[in-house]
Design a protein that fits this description.
single chain; 181 residues; mainly alpha; Arp2/3 complex 21 kDa subunit ARPC3; two-stranded antiparallel sheet; 6 helices; 2 strands; globular; Cell_shape_determining_MreD
Length: 181
């Protein structure tokens, strides 16, 4: 729990102070949906939802935004990434990339939709769509390194998943029961 709190605090501070100031392809990267999706994908749906809520609340308070918008979106992202892990158990090495891209797209569309529903006046044009697509592309490129860092930080402290245990070799003198005639 302490490790998750430190991870959220450090990740939120890095996002707010460094990453949001650097632009690539004309848009800044957004590490927060990647953090939430990675935690949900590694630790499960409930942990991902709670982590998403807390990180979203931290971001809202830090930026003086409408409270609850980021929390709502990140809670859904963390829960969804955790449910994908619990239901499918994707073993492919690029699954975090797909989940990171989906989390970024859901976050971008969710923020836009919630701001529209709350009545925030903002110009809507093709530049908004361009920015959303470029942010998804940039975050897709960053998804695997972020996932690797989160996995390295959390995996030693999580209980072993029984679905991922390796089967032990038979100790019948080197022959398996299938090869006996």
């Amino acid at each position: 729990m302490v490790r998750l709190a430190l991870l959220g605090l450090i990740g939120g501070l890095i996002q707010l102070s460094v990453v949001s100031q650097v632009t690539v392809f004309g848009v800044p990267a957004d590490l927060t949906p990647l953090l939430v999706a990675s935690v949900g994908f590694i630790a499960g749906s409930m942990t991902g939802a709670v982590f998403g809520f807390c990180l979203g609340l931290f971001i809202d308070v830090s930026l003086y935004q409408t409270l609850g918008v980021s929390s709502l979106v990140f809670t859904a992202i963390g829960y969804g990434a955790g449910r994908i892990r619990e239901l499918r158990d994707p073993a492919h090495g690029l699954a975090p990339v797909a989940i990171g891209a989906a989390a970024t797209a859901i976050a971008a569309v969710g923020f836009t939709l919630l701001q529209f529903l709350l009545g925030v006046d903002a110009p809507v044009s093709l530049l908004l769509l361009r920015e959303l697509l470029l942010t998804v592309v940039l975050n897709t490129l960053l998804a695997l390194p972020v996932y690797a860092i989160i996995r390295r930080a959390l995996l030693p402290f999580l209980p072993e998943d029984p679905r991922r245990r390796r089967r032990r070799a038979y100790t019948t003198g080197g022959l398996s029961p299938i090869s006996r005639a």
